[in-house]
Amino acid sequence: MDGTFNDNDLSRVIDADKAHVWHHLTQHKPFESADPRIIVEGKGLRVWDQSGKEHLDAVSGGVWTVNVGYGRESIAKAVYDQLMKLCYFAQSAGSIPGSQFAEKLIDKMPGMSRVYYTNSGSEANEKAFKMIRQIAHKRYGGKKHKILYRDRDYHGGTLATMSAGGQDERAMQYGPLAPGFVRVPHCLEYRAQWDLTGEDYGQRAADAIEEVILAEGPDTVGGLCLEPVTAGGGVITPPPGYWERVQEICRKYDILLHIDEVVCGVGRTGTHWFGYQHYGIKPDFVTMAKGVASGYAAIACCVTTEAVFDMFKDDAADPMNYFRDISTFGGCTAGPAAALENMRIIEDENLLENTTAMGARMIDNLSGLMEKHRVVGDVRGKGLFCGAELVADRATKEPVSEAQVKQVVAECNAQGVIIGASNRSVPGLNNVLCFSPALIASADDIDEITGAVDVALTRVFG
Fold first, then answer.
1. How many CB atoms lie within 10 A of CB 14?
2. Is 3.40.640.10 the CATH classification of the domain at 73-349?
3. Least packed by Cβ within 10 Å: which of 35, 121, 150, 176?
4. Which family, according to the similarity comment (predicted)?
5. pLDDT band at 317, cuts 50/70/90?
6. Predicted local distance difference test score (pLDDT) of residue 216
7. Does the CA dihedral 39-387-228-402 come out positive or negative?
8. Of 374, 420, 419, 381, the residue nearest 397 (C-alpha)
């Protein structure tokens, strides 16, 4: 740290935090006798807390966001320059950075055409849900309104996105949830639901979606919302044959395909800009947030095809036919200004290629830990988005307890490495360690992360 804050300043900050700040996903009872962690500064992959302790951040800001790392002066300057010129105007009008980023983004997304700006991943997903529902009314008399979602996927924290969430613990105590959302089975072969493997398993998992459609009635199902790689539900990469069959099913029953790239988007999975592009998917909607501007400004996007856009553009006498929606902070210009510079950095520094290489190293290192520690039951991932599932018994795949997973995370933290883990999401299966360092990660960074995990597993499990 550069010492900008002295001990007295930090003491006041901590007191104010304890007295007034309501932290996300946090039980505050322990703060009656202990201080919350305050992150004071960040540079590259490193952050420093209020005690001056340095940490290697292996989860890009805690929630897969800071894709190009901390301390990027060029992004801060781009935001400053834009704010001085125009900070905000409602998105009912255009802006220079909004138009420029939309053009650049669409250039990375062949087949897509229109960008609807909003301020969070949850809200971007809500926009897609609303579009699907309005299309149901415009074209199908309101009948084709149901939206399918997948077990273990996550799409946000609002009531509607929780209704479309496959993580039951996240929805506990928040019901009744919104009607019209229907679950389909997950596609995790490690937790196989059918006695099949490889492409046979992938196609069977997709066929299970068709079974739900038929049970609900194809004339009632308007959309299917899936993550290309399941994130917080356990870093689940799709088995071969899965996506090809899913897409075939959507076309067969005239179901709009909504891909949630809030975590996977903008380089996280390597090689391609978006996770869906690894699998030849041609979506109707793509939603994104987090890495779009690497956390330097709030921005999220709901991107659609021109065909979807055209459904809301007509000369009908009904004045209600257009998409009657607004997102207040979708009009902030800082987001697209930051996103433009964020994308330039990814291009100029070849971070897609680095992500592919360092992701392969991460998987290799985690596979080495699997050979050394029997508690590691499975390793999976795509690019710098990796997971290791911990089990008490490899033969039965009995998961370790969530408390033990927390111990591993705490032991890594004690070594100055911040890792993630699935928690309070999937009942009985919150047993996956999650890794998503910034796309600038080096081989030494990857080795330091997995080295800390090695030590932690030894300390917790022997």
1. 16
2. yes
3. 176
4. Belongs to the class-III pyridoxal-phosphate-dependent aminotransferase family.
5. confident
6. 98
7. negative
8. 374
